Amino acid sequence: LDPYVASTVVHELVHALDDQLHDLDRPEWDELTIDESNAVTAGVEGDARRVEGEWIATLSEPERAEYAQGEAAASANADYGEFPQWLVELLLAPYELGETLVSGLGSEAEVDALFEDPPESTEQVLDAAAFAADEQPVGLPVPEAAGPVVDEGTLGALMLYLMVFESVGVAEGSPLVSGWGGDTYVVYEDGDRVCITLDVVGDSAGETTAIASTLRAFADASSADASVETVGGGTPRLTSGATPA
Known about the structure:
Elements: H1 3-22, H2 34-56, H3 61-76, H4 85-103, H5 108-116, H6 122-126, H7 128-132, E1 149-153, H8 156-168, H9 170-173, H10 175-178, E2 180-190, E3 193-202, H11 205-221, E4 225-231, E5 235-242
Antiparallel strand pairs: 1-2, 2-3, 3-5, 4-5
Helix pairs in contact: 1-2, 2-4, 2-8, 4-8, 8-11
């Protein structure tokens, strides 16, 4: 195996060992929300990326050069241009954010503890202080659907940020990373349209106000029929609907 292919084998063998030690096929994980699933995946992929990186660091200079050639060849054959940027970022996020999270732990015992009690939201993955403090999401009731329900759950800070940043920019979208406190959504059918109603709150009243501003900017830039109102004493609610192509 050349070093680049070998690094992939190392990555996958870490998954196999972590599965033996910590059971990565837990039935309860089948019921996770989008946010919880992204958080758990970040821990799993982050540990494999961490060990893969440590293995790459042991390579000799000629082996590293060969690794770099293999990596460049693999990237040259990948064309993500036809995919939305948010989708590409979502696929990469568990690896990159997870590696930062796991590498920031102080010992293998802490890595073991991460698998036993994984992050419960992507806020904990994005913000080391939220992870250290075991900051929990704010619970919100699921909004009432105006038609047959397709799905409901929690999107989370990561998914919400990726949803809006292409339309509103990094700075306008940042309150969803730094201030997210909790969210809940329902997807439903309205005739031939698929619609979503989404409630989001921040960690404080000021952060909720900033998130409301972000959602309004997103609604204004959206090609769908989107609007934002305030419900329940100050909770921003985004409603959007579109006919599938």
